[in-house]
Amino acid sequence: MVWLKTLNPRQTHWQGKSVWVIGASSGIGRATASALHAQGARVTVSARNLAALEAFVQEHPGSVALALDCTDRSAMHACVNTMQATALPDCVMYCAGHYQAMRASAMDVDDMLRHLEVNYQGALYMLEALLPALRQRGSGHLAFVSSVAGYRGLPNSLAYGPTKAALTNLAETLHLDLQADGIGISVINPGFVETPLTAGNTFTMPGLITPKQAAQAILQGWAHGAFEIHFPKRFTAWMKALRIMPNRWYFFLVRKTTL
Description:
This protein is α/β, with parallel strands linked by helices.
């Protein structure tokens, strides 16, 4: 039966595969790039922090560093052109992220727009630059690191959550549009991961895991052909329950437990 099939081709063999990780200077992106390198992938890492990328290359022989500000449209196209000169990537993970806790009582539109640029707009630039070549080839996989914060509105997430909701919706639509072209799409929805982005949180982060644990969950999700990869499940299961909860119950419960 069609509906029982995996939503994406299973990715289990990385030896010799070309992978591009955008947002690889730290956290989930760096850990995933490291895990892929350990499995034999030819990894290209991108971020604004060139020193961090060069350190990664030193620790992972054969990998390549391409400095990139994902909010720079022309720079994104230049990076893709550079990669196409050698090998079109088999898998791309968009992991660039910006996060600052924010409530409506201290709304900062400039920072909200910065969230939009990094978390969502950069992904559009990547698609603009790369998608035509992938469609022409008829294969490839695009993964977008979103967040369970995009499931529903949450306190402190006035700037961050809407951008992740948009990224998740984008991935869902791309999957519908591109499956027939042979291009896999996955969306990665982490809970709390110990990264520089979450280091500034002053509240308890339930189910907190390490970037290395997150990377293993991502590789397992790809190996299973999953569309949505979410972790840790002991936390994200609760977030999924909130996602389908009636509004009256949802707002009452979130106010009671977080405000």
